[in-house]
Amino acid sequence: MTAKRIASPKTVLYNRQKATAVPLPWLRRAVKAAVPGCLAQGKEREDAVLATLEEVEITFVDDAEIARVHGEFLDDPTPTDVITFHHGEILISTETAARQAVDHGQPFDHELALYAIHGLLHLAGWHDEDPAEAEAMARVQAGILKEALAKVGSAS
To answer: Cβ neighbours of residue 132 under 8 Å, at least 6 residues apart?
Structure first.
């Protein structure tokens, strides 16, 4: 049986860490602006679930929590940037985002939005295990981020 497609999933964002200030109101607007682009990128992908989810939950956590989840579910107890579960849960490490924003010369709020888009694209059927796939996914997510920023501006 094929899952029912919905117009757009509701996105809910939570901040469950205290390490870094998170611009939640802006991120809610940025994610909402990015969802249509992510849905469009998943239309022809075999394992896309984004269009079938009623809700996507994005939770901001610290490095210790994402490392715990990373170890429990992916057998790698180190911090990572984003973990996506196909039932519609995305975890984002704010501490990793803060470090990577500096490394990438990008504002922290943009890095967080990029990670949210990355997780949404995983739900839209994109993968990044293969270097060529990862490069293609990076281009797509950068384009979606650019479009979202054009709609909502920057939080910083």
So the answer is: none
The token duo for 92 is 């984002």
The rounded distance, in Å, linking the Cα atoms of 123 and 56 is: 9
Pairing of strands 10-15, 82-85: unpaired
Instruction: Confirm if 126 and 46 have CB atoms less than 8 A apart.
Output: no
Ramachandran sector of residue 125 (left: φ over 0; alpha: ψ -120 to 50; beta: rest) = left
Segment 124-139 shows an average pLDDT of 96
Distance CA 43, CA 138 (A): 18
Q: Which of 23-27, 42-46, 72-76 has the lowest mean pLDDT?
A: 42-46
pTM, two decimals, is 0.94
Gap between the terminal Cα atoms of the chain: 45
